[in-house]
């Protein structure tokens, strides 16, 4: 979804950039998140996610790093590796998992958003049963960051999807978007260049003891 969003913004003339500070993925996944983002933004994939932050194992990144025998992942390091080109209108930071999913031994996606001073959250949620709970829990964790909720795989003919959408708008007073074109318009209306960024195991525990 982020890749489609980037590609559409770019087609409409915006200078876009994406960052994925760390990625983990199934070893047979040849189209990683960073590769998809690079295909959409036109950037070098290593600018999106440095090669040494690729962990080919479907676990949270610090767990994957440990299981692969790689060094520990630290928040300060992955944050210091996030650099933006000078001439960008909209920058996206893509996290991994949910906001409380570990990104590093000493921090999660929520901490990344805070430390990067993200000024807008694009919360991608499933349109299906359970979405209201997960949206509410996420927003409770995140606190007062302007947020757009995007309901992924929304089918307007699906009554549950439509009831979920209306509940989040009417009861929770959220901005809820269900198609990429409406999302593009919302982002174009509110985008600020990054600097203020925009956005978005069964193995042994990782060794996070020593730096
Ligand atoms: C491998 C997968 N696609 C993601 N990159 C990692 C998701 C980690 C979730 C961890 C958790 O919250 O328990």
From TrEMBL:
PANTHER family: DETHIOBIOTIN SYNTHETASE (PTHR43210). It comes from the Bacteria. CDD domains: DTBS. This is Dethiobiotin synthase. The keyword GTP-binding does not apply. InterPro entries: DTB_synth_BioD, P-loop_NTPase. The lineage of its organism: Bacteria, Pseudomonadati, Pseudomonadota, Gammaproteobacteria, Steroidobacterales. Pfam families: AAA_26 (PF13500). Keywords: Biotin biosynthesis.
């Amino acid at each position: 979804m982020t890749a489609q969003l980037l590609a559409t913004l770019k087609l409409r003339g915006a200078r876009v950039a994406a960052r994925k500070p760390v990625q983990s993925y199934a070893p047979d996944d040849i189209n990683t998140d960073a590769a998809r983002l690079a295909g959409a933004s036109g950037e070098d994939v290593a600018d999106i996610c440095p090669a040494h932050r690729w962990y080919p194992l479907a676990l949270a990144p610090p767990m994957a790093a440990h299981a692969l025998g790689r060094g520990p992942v630290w928040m300060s390091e992955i944050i210091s590796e996030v650099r933006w080109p000078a001439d960008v209108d909209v920058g996206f930071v893509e996290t991994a998992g949910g906001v409380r999913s570990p990104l590093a031994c000493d921090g999660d996606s929520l901490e990344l958003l805070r430390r990067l001073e993200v000024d807008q959250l694009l919360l991608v949620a499933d349109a299906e049963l359970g979405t209201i709970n997960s949206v509410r829990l996420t927003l409770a964790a995140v606190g007062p960051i302007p947020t757009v909720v995007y309901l992924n795989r929304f089918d307007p003919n699906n009554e549950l999807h439509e009831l979920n959408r209306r509940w989040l708008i009417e009861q929770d007073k959220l901005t809820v978007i269900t198609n990429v074109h409406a999302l593009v318009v919302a982002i174009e209306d509110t985008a600020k260049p990054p600097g203020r960024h925009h956005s978005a195991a069964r193995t042994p525990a990782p060794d996070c003891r020593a730096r």
